[in-house]
Design brief:
136 residues, alpha+beta, 4-stranded mixed β-sheet, 35% helix
């Protein structure tokens, strides 16, 4: 998994995922998942220049509430590692995922974060978001 090709970079992608996606809470994380439409441009006409390279895309929000810069970067590294191990639990690889770390994430290992991500990705709300009628 190339780090650059699997990250959300545009603020519009973050906003779209947080606004239009489904949100699931875990003990130390808040996970938002937005399935990508089957064809572009999507009905809203927001993005017409999208080219996807297999796999879901991840965006991280790690605020100062989690800790100082050293702690925040460590949490972000652990979350990226956990995402790489749990991304296959998503119902489809065509998705945007935004993970917001809560202060408790500072003391979690990558394995614990991966378990929380897996539970979030297999939550009924996330699975229901991907069961969209293809005629729409």
């Amino acid at each position: 998994m190339s780090a650059d090709s699997t990250r959300l970079k545009r603020s519009s992608d973050f906003t779209r995922t947080l606004d239009k996606g489904v949100r699931v809470s875990a003990r130390d994380l808040s996970i938002s998942v937005a399935p990508l439409p089957a064809r572009w441009p999507d009905p809203s006409g927001v993005r017409t220049d999208v080219v996807e390279f297999g796999g879901p895309r991840l965006g991280l929000i790690v605020s100062k509430k989690v800790g100082n810069a050293v702690v925040r970067h460590a949490v972000a590294r652990r979350l990226r590692h956990a995402f790489a191990g749990s991304a296959n639990a998503l119902p489809s690889s065509d998705a945007y995922v935004v993970v917001r770390a809560r202060p408790g994430a500072a003391t979690c290992s990558a394995t614990e974060l991966e378990q929380q991500l897996r539970r979030g990705f297999t939550h009924r709300k996330v699975i229901a978001a991907f069961d969209v009628d293809p005629a729409r």
